[in-house]
Amino acid sequence: MSNKQNENVNYSGNTKTEKIALTLFRGGIFFTLVVLLWPVLMTASEVTGSVEDQLRQVSEAPGLFMANFFWASLIAPSILVLMLTFARYAEIRKQTSLAYRISLFFLAGYLILVSMSYMSQYLYLPRLLAEGNIEMAIAWYFNNDLSRPYFLNQLGYFLFGIAALIIGFRLFFEPLLPRLIGITLWASGLLCLFAFLGLILHIEWQGLVSVFSGLLTLPVGVMSIIWGRKMLQDN
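Above: the chain's sequence. Below: its structure in token form.
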């Protein structure tokens, strides 16, 4: 199918695309809200000083810290819904399931690793602090760049980056909105790969690259809402 034909795709009367449209619209709204509210919680729960000082502050007032990471743990499942929907859309349009199945493997790893990383901050770290096990708490404190949760998080986003490249490429040859989503996924995916490489090589800009890769997922959520709404209107 040519690009010109692709721009005029008619989604009407197709039950599969209607389900995809609903998922894009609702999932896009939920994911966008999660991403927009997360910085508010991060700011409210911010602690300062050395790692030991930060852990002491968390131990004294764990409520906001735990709420922040609980909210953060919603990011992976909410963007996973969108990513699987993009992959499903590409599968239907291209009549192939290979890219869909490959991306499932990487996305599953992403979900497991990132969920373990964030959930450990409100399920495991508080117990270590309550027991006074500071040495282990330091090793499991996310905001310590040398910690296990931080490594798991970056490894998870490395896998996300690979999935983003696969799915994003499948959207390059679609109408405008999915094409823009594909381009944004590629940009985010490449930054995820660079961020993990930076972590392994102990490069100073690694954290900044990781932040930018995350910021690029926000327009993906917004474009998903617009795309889903357009598909619903066309049905």
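Confidence is low (pLDDT under 50) at residues 1-8.
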